[in-house]
Design brief:
The chain is 0% helix and 45% strand. The chain is built from no helices and 13 strands. The chain has a six-stranded antiparallel sheet with strand order 6-3-2-1-7-8, with no helix packed on it.
């Protein structure tokens, strides 16, 4: 039996609130929608469909940072690059060439998110200072 993978999305609502859950598209809706889990860990109980700004939608990578926070596409992570021997900050992107989530390295090709590296989510690309 295989372990189920969590497929989860995050998006900033048109009301300014961040929603976490399933992503849905409806033909007549102006924006994509997030359907929150019954108990959202960030906001407590929520139910319904919440319109989110398309540019802010990001998928959960399946990884957590060293503090247990879920890492989403669009987050900015800080990590130690042992190849360059330096502490870097980079946005998390989906790389279609490798079909994986990567940290967009400032000077090289994107670097895959490796489970043996420690990441810290320090913000996201959609908000300076980064509410998640």
């Amino acid at each position: 039996m295989t372990k189920n993978r969590v497929i989860r999305f995050r998006g900033k609502g048109t009301d300014g609130v961040w929603y976490h859950g399933s992503l849905a598209f409806f033909n007549k809706a102006q924006y994509p929608m997030i359907i929150p889990e019954t108990k959202d860990p960030h906001y407590g109980f929520r139910w319904g469909f919440f319109s989110v700004i398309p540019e802010t939608v990001g998928q959960y990578t399946g990884m957590k940072d060293k503090y247990g926070q879920m890492i989403y596409e669009g987050d900015i992570v800080q990590y130690y690059d042992d190849i360059e021997d330096e502490l870097l900050s980079a946005p998390v992107v989906y790389d279609s060439d490798t079909c994986s989530f990567c940290a967009k390295h400032p000077r090289r090709d994107p670097v895959g998110l490796y489970s043996h590296w420690e990441y810290t989510v320090i913000g996201n690309i959609h908000e300076k200072g980064g509410d998640k």
